Amino acid sequence: MKYLLDTHILIWWAEDNKKLKPEHKDFIADPENMIFVSVVSVWKTIIKTKLKKIRLKTSIDKIIESKQQQIVQAEQWKRGLMQGLFV
Predict the structure, then answer these.
(1) CB 45 within 8 A of CB 54
(2) Reduced to 3 states, what is the DSSP secondary structure of residue 56?
(3) What is the DSSP letter of 58?
(4) Helix (H, G, I), strand (E, B) or coil at 65
(5) Segments making up each domain of the chain, as ranges
(6) Which end of the chain offers a freer environment for a tag, N or C, measured as fewer CB atoms within 10 Å?
(7) What CA–CA distances, in Å, run from 38 to 11, 18, 33, 64, 73?
(8) 86 pLDDT exceeds 70?
(9) How far is residue 63 CA from its own chain's centroid?
(10) Predicted pLDDT of residue 78
(11) Alpha carbon of 82 to those of 43, 76, 78, 85: distances in Å?
């Protein structure tokens, strides 16, 4: 399956927050699933961090870097879909 992570889910997953339900962790951890993150979620997180509306244990760039093996950016997926790379 393919999953596009909401901004909250991305942050909770990255920070190992207890608000993320165990079944959602299982979906994300399953190697059969493709996990996508929109650039908009990254952008929103950066803005909210700079405005001090949220506080992260780790910077968003480090989160993306550490999780990149599990994440396919949504824009990359859209390009691949248009080129027939993903079904």
Answers:
(1) yes
(2) coil
(3) S
(4) helix
(5) 2-82
(6) C
(7) 13, 23, 16, 11, 6
(8) no
(9) 9
(10) 53
(11) 24, 10, 6, 8
Q: Answer whether 9's CB lies under 8 Å from 26's CB.
A: no
Q: Where are the alpha helices (DSSP H) in the chain?
A: 7-14, 22-29, 39-50, 60-67, 74-82
Read off the pLDDT of residues 4-41 as tens digits, 9 standing for 90 and up. 888 999 889 888 899 999 999 998 888 888 888 888 88
Asked if 57 contacts 17 with a C-beta cutoff of 8 angstroms, the reply is no
Q: Which token pair is 48? A: 């909210």
- As given in the structure block, the two tokens for residue 5 are 């992570």
Residue 16: count of CB within 10 angstroms of its CB = 9
